[in-house]
Sequence to fold (314 residues):
Amino acid sequence: MARRKKKAFPHKAILGIEALSVDDVRYIIDTARNLRSVFKRRRIKKTPALQGRTVLNLFLEPSTRTRVSFELAEKRLSADIINIAAASSAIVKGESIFDTGRTLLAMSPDLIVIRHKMGGSPHFLHKHLEIPVINAGDGINQHPTQALLDLLSILDRIDTVEGKTITIVGDIKHSRVARSNVLLLKKMGAKVRLCGPPTLLQPEYATLGGEIFYDLKQAVEGAHVVMMLRVQLERMKMGYFPTTNEYRRLYCFTAKHLKLARKNALVMHPGPMNRWVEIEPEVADSENSLILDQVANGISIRMALLYLLLGEKG
Ligand code: ASP
Fold:
């Protein structure tokens, strides 16, 4: 039987969710699953797919999960890696992102992974340096690899998100995770509910495609998936709620709330998690929780994207 021709990935960068078609998303998820199953079988977790390719990890905002899983994904694909973190980069001496990028380009990387506090910085680098870029989180704008790994984690448990109710709760205003997830989940046919205090969830967020709720009980009632978000204190220049206790009283996801959702509802959190503020440990560590699956799937999704952007093109 003739071998099916490998489909080409039509993108040179992963900057946000909008540019991806439903087919692209399915292709990324399938590639991540294939890579995951190959590595599951292997004792030595390495393939030469990106041998001789150099990936530059430019993390100019704090990161644990995303940074480590990108690095592991790159190592598993045998890429050469350059890591630059905020504290050790010349950016702290006042160098602009453009000059940092241009300097680094002189080292001939094949791809840049960037996390930056300014929204749009991955787009800026991609446009001006003409090099493949993956957005690892740009300010409050987007975190596309997080949304893709979240989708993979959900699809490992339920076969489709189409028609399913997915509730995202917390600091929607400052959450790039929420923005990327709403765009992706809507694209894939889910019904998305957004819930949080009115100061962190203005009615205009409905334009993203979610239904707005201010009451947690109503928002989670009958939901198939509940995704909790961290309160992003580092992005707040003023108080958005009177006290942490008040926030917890109204928006902390507890075992009682879980009972209102569907039987076997899935619980998610992108991390880092503030136990007792946005989620009760009993729920975070329950059988319904996908939180550790999300971390593990981060490696598979990032391997898939690196491979699709670099490996396939030879
Ligand atoms: N780790 C996620 C992010 O980088 C979520 C968070 O920080 O709360 O956006």
Q: What stands out?
A: The first strand starts at residue 54 and ends at 59. Residues 119 and 172 are 16 Å apart (CA to CA). The longest helix spans residues 291-311.
